[in-house]
Amino acid sequence: MALSGCGMAEKEARNHYVMSLAFDEEAMTLTGQQTVCYVNLSENAFDSLYFHLYPNAFASGRERSVVASNKMDEAYYDGLSSGWIDILSVCFENDNKAQYEISGEQENILVVNLQETLYPDEEVAINIDFSVKLANINHRLGNGENTINFGNFYPIACVYEEGVGFSQNPYHANGDPFYSDCSDYDVTIKYADRFSIATSGNVTKERADEENRCVAIEAENVRDFCFVLSEKFEKASVIQEGVTINYYGYKGDTDLEENVNVAAQAVQTFVELFGEYPYKQISIVKASFLNGGMEYPNLVLISDKVAAADYIYVIVHEIAHQWWYSVVGNDQYNHAWLDEGLAEYSTLLFFKQHTEYGEDFNQMIISAENSYKLFVKIYTKVNGSVDGVMDKPLCQFETEPEYVQCTYTKGVLLLDSIRQTIGDKKFHRALTKYYNEFAFKNATPADFISVFISVSGTDMEGYINSWLYDKIVW
Ligand SMILES: [Zn+2]
Prior knowledge:
By secondary structure, the chain is an alpha+beta fold. 29% of the residues lie in helices and 30% in strands. It folds into three domains: 15-181, Immunoglobulin-like (Sandwich); 234-327, Neutral Protease, domain 2 (Orthogonal Bundle); 355-469, Orthogonal Bundle (Neutral Protease, domain 2), CATH 1.10.390.10. A hairpin with a 4-residue loop joins strand 8 (141-143) and strand 9. Helix 5 (361-383) packs across helix 6. The longest helix has 23 residues, at 361-383. The N and C termini lie far apart (58 Å). The protein binds zinc ion.
């Protein structure tokens, strides 16, 4: 691939990924040539840069599986299977080969040693050639039964935190173990023409010969890039205030129109509640995936295993993540409750406004309370105690139910408790302020708390922290 200069001068400084990808279905591999123009927005000088290599979590012999033990059979539909990423070469703009190493407990980090120290506000272009082998697995990255999912497939720059360093957390079966900065993407993807594609960003060019299709995609100011291929896709679209909303179901599905309309309603509701959707499109993609749904910028996966009764709920929850995760980012490994709690509570707010779905908001809060109490009761009985700490790394949640109860359910209860304490008006003003202030950035729990303090005029720190860190047993 021809290396171009970073050329970021006229744009707001952020990382820029240029990727040329080709998918070989026979070998089940995706080869990629990626140029990352990395901008040092920190106050420190760097001699090395760090990139996540998430596909290596799917390699065989890992101590930790990529899915919870009770979901192995559903995930590995065709027996155990492995995937990984091979780094084929790393070089700089002048074609000089870079010194690099692959480190981390899951070989999950690529460390690139720079030729020259990268000082604040300087940028460097790094060319990485890679090849990703997909496992046969119904997961966010993998060759699933009905769709081929490309989530977290490429080397993505680790977030640098002042005073902490580069965040290098490994993959984990619980939750969405990701953390990244908003960047620009220019991607071309070549694949067999019989597939349809759903993607982050906007397709700007497309060409096909007898066998292959090649699409060019631009995605500006997004914190990740994902795409999905399938022969089964059938799409319904609506345009709403300049945003194209796509729903990808499977051929023969009779609920395409219904689902695209729900998605449009969810987008509209969250625009009104929190602030504008700053992209041109969003794709809601039915896919071979395990856990309800999964969010990426401009694209969400909805598991084709979700029961019909829960399908709309999952669509709404995943769309809420466009506000909480995609636009306002956070460290999903260490503070999962921050986006999950907000996405889940936003879902309840959607149903509060749309009574036509027959959900009762107050009843949903009571159900959340009962669900958490039951979790406390059962875990106390089985383990003698329960750990209700919400704000902790994914690896410290001992089971999936503990993770779900402490991040989603307790997240909902925390937010509703704040709403009841400061009233609806201030609560909604705080959410809008949080959204606007941290759009395209990564927010921390302290940022979240400080917004609620400033809007409510009440020192809520101790109160919110008691939810986050105390082993509340109700
Ligand atoms: Zn979620």
